[in-house]
């Protein structure tokens, strides 16, 4: 049974290899044919007068630039579409910010003093202390707990 399995696998690999080789031969034939066509076109171009060669070169360059221009136009259209989308999103977010700011100015009077107290507390915490801290060894757990909170 193991020998048959190995034989089947070997035959399958051989078949896949032959298919790959055939595909590569076909691809190579196509490339060879394309190369021969390009060589023939090049030889025909060399036989033309210099004026015609220049004209053909210009036509090829015009074609290349036209294709490049079309690609750039397509890219520009995508960028413009993205810009419009981003502007719409910005308007939506600006509206949300304005609505939020408007809701903050209409806060009830009883909440405002509490907010001022919070701001004062924050301002006190922002003082700039310098120097070393002196403490007793037995106060260390209490100090750490206060620092954390």
TrEMBL record:
Its name, as the record gives it, is MYO5B protein
Give the gene name: Myo5b_1
Q: Which residues form a coiled coil?
A: 3-103
Species name: Rhadina sibilatrix
* Classification lineage: Eukaryota, Metazoa, Chordata, Craniata, Vertebrata
Alphabetized UniProt keyword annotations: Coiled coil
């Amino acid at each position: 049974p193991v020998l048959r399995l190995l034989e089947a696998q070997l035959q399958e690999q051989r078949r896949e290899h032959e298919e790959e080789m055939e595909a590569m031969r076909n691809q190579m034939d196509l490339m060879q044919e394309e190369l021969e066509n390009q060589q023939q076109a090049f030889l025909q171009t060399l036989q033309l007068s210099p004026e015609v060669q220049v004209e053909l070169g210009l036509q090829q360059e015009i074609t290349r630039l036209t294709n490049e221009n079309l690609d750039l136009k397509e890219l520009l259209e995508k960028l413009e579409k993205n810009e419009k989308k981003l502007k719409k999103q910005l308007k939506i977010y600006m509206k949300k910010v304005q609505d939020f700011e408007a809701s903050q100015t209409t806060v009830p009077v009883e909440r405002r003093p509490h907010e001022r107290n919070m701001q004062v507390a924050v301002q006190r915490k922002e003082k700039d202390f310098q120097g070393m801290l002196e403490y007793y060894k037995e106060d260390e757990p209490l100090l750490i707990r206060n620092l954390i909170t």
